[in-house]
Amino acid sequence: MLGEFPIDTGTAIIEADPYGGNRYILKVNGVPSSHVDLDDPTYLDFEYMRWMEPIFTYGFPAEDYDGRARKLRVLHLGGGGCSMARWVAASYENARQVVVELDAKLAELVRTSFDVPRAPLVRLRVGDAGQVLPTLSEESRDVIIRDVFAGSTTPRELTTVDYARQAQRVLDGGGVYIMNCGDTADLAGAKAEAATLLEVFEHVAMIADPPMLKGRRYGNIVFLASDEPLSLGAGFERNLRTAPLPAQLVSGAGVQRFAAGASPILP
Description:
By secondary structure, the chain is of the alpha/beta class. It has helices at residues 47-59, 83-91, 104-113, 129-132, 161-170, 188-200, 210-213, 233-241, 253-259, and strands at residues 3-7, 10-16, 23-28, 31-37, 73-77, 96-101, 122-126, 141-146, 171-183, 203-208, 219-226, 248-251. The radius of gyration is 17 Å and the shape is globular. The N and C termini lie far apart (41 Å).
C-alpha cells in the first residue's frame, strides 16, 4: 500500500505515520491531503477535522439518528483520503454519504487502500464539485462539507455567492454548510468567504485558533453556515478550547466584524 502512485491529476504518495500505529498520510502532488487510521476510523489527526467533529456530535447527536427511520445525509465536496467520511460512517448508523472526487484514479486508490465503506453507505462519485452540486435535489442533505483544494487554494468557482446558494438549496431544514478555508496571514480570502456566506445564509460562524484569526500565520478556518440557528451549546465551545490545538468559535456580530470591508465573491 505504501509508495508513489500515478493519478489523473499528478502523483499520490501514501506514507506511514512516523509516530507509528496502523496510520497513514496521503499526499497529493506533494501536499499532505489526509491522515487515516485504519484501526480506528474515529481518530482524526488534522486539526481542522477535529474542529469539524463537534459540529456533528453537538449539532447532530447520534441518538437522533437511529439508522432506520432517520439516516444522517452527508455530502463531501472533495474526497482526499475520505477521513471525515470514514468518521461519519463509524459514528452514525447507516449514514448515507456521497463523496465527490475529481480524480478517478485517486478515488480508486483511496477506496482500495483505506477501507472506505461501500455504497450505499459511502458512494464515491467521480466529478467536478462545481458541476455536481447544482445537479442535486433540493433539501436532500443534512450536512455539506466543502474541502476542495487545487494546491493550497480552493478553486474560485466553489467560493462564489452562486455556489453558496446552491449549497443552501441542497440543504434540508436545519442543515449546515461546513467549509474548510485555507488562507495566508492577510486573511483576505477568508474575509471574502465570510462576506459571501453572510450574503446568502442567515447564520454564519467560524472556527480557528487565535493566532490564525489575528493574522499571524497561514492556516485553516472552518466556516459554518445555516438558515437556522446553530444550536451547538456551551459544550461545543468547551470542546474547541480543550482541543490539542485550542480553537475559538466566532459567530454573529464577530463574523460581521471579521468580514468588514470585504466584498462577496461573485461569479
